[in-house]
Design brief:
With about 70 residues, this protein is mainly alpha-helical. It has a domain of about 30 residues.
Length: about 70
């Protein structure tokens, strides 16, 4: 991931949820929150892609592609 500007935030979350998310690896709170936000961003991207299913037309012949003829 490219370097970006850092934004400092304050969040109010249940302690048990934070401890569970941090797990046994004892990651820092910052690393845990960052990993969670990255996961949510990926999930949103995947959902956007899934919503495109059946809406994109390809000009590729998939049978030829499967047989490595392209």
């Amino acid at each position: 991931m490219k370097a970006s500007k850092i934004q400092k935030i304050t969040v109010h979350i249940p302690r048990e949820l934070l401890q569970k998310a941090m797990g046994r690896k004892h990651k820092s709170i910052t690393d845990t929150v960052k990993e969670g936000l990255e996961y949510l961003a990926r999930a949103q991207t995947y959902e956007n892609i899934r919503q495109m299913r059946g809406k994109v037309k390809f000009s590729i012949d998939f049978d030829k592609l499967r047989n490595d003829e392209i």
